[in-house]
Amino acid sequence: MMLTTTALSREALLERANAMLEAHDDYFPGVQVDGVEQKGDVLVFNGNFWLDEQGLPTAKSTRVFNLYKFLATELSKQYHLA
């Protein structure tokens, strides 16, 4: 089975992704994506990861990683970068 995805601009994808983040149960203020890349069939979103002073992950880092993974999983099924 081959899935057909819709092309969206970087700006449109980021707008849609940030709206999905705000509606997610794990959202907390300040979380947002500011970049997206196409890696094969997967959209990879990035933004702040809340690292500590030594550059190590914090408790918020895990939540943010899971939110970005959620976006990649959900949006890659529907869209590709125009």
Automatic annotation (TrEMBL):
Native source organism of the sequence: Duffyella gerundensis
InterPro entries recorded: DUF2498, YciN_sf
Pfam families: DUF2498
Protein name: Protein YciN
